Amino acid sequence: MTTMIDKIAWVKLSEGKLLGARSFGRELYYIPGGKREPGETDAEALAREIKEELSVRIIPETIKACGTFEAQADGKPEGVHVRLTCYAADADGELRPASEIEEIVWLTYADRERVSAASHLLFDRLKQDGLLV
């Protein structure tokens, strides 16, 4: 039986690089975002998580779906999967690590092995679409 961890992620690209974040005490980078609170829409969860983690405000009318990716969850028992529902959006403010975030970085396809398995699928799609260097 598969257990699913359902997450929302912000796909923020700049000059062919993807914004990544790393939590305190972790090695792998992840795509900023997180889990929905009960009753939250994807857009509400995205806005809340990005404000909490990166100190910027997502502009709701610019949110666009970028795909959903599913893979084995890193550091979890076999059969625990992550479903990453990805959205692009513009934001207001200056990107700054907040909450549990130790570091934010701009990742290229060469950094693919530095992210989670579900993020590998996103990296592959962005590279295929010519959006990630």
TrEMBL record:
All copies of domain Nudix hydrolase, residue ranges: 1-128
Superkingdom assignment: Bacteria
Protein known as: NUDIX domain-containing protein
PANTHER family reported for this sequence: GDP-MANNOSE MANNOSYL HYDROLASE, MUTT_NUDIX FAMILY PROTEIN
Cofactor(s) the protein requires to work: Mg(2+)
GO molecular function terms listed in the Swiss-Prot or TrEMBL record: hydrolase activity
Key words, A-Z: Hydrolase
Keyword Signal (UniProt): no
Keyword Disulfide bond carried by entry: no
InterPro entries per record: NUDIX_hydrolase-like_dom_sf, NUDIX_hydrolase_dom
Pfam families (alphabetical): NUDIX
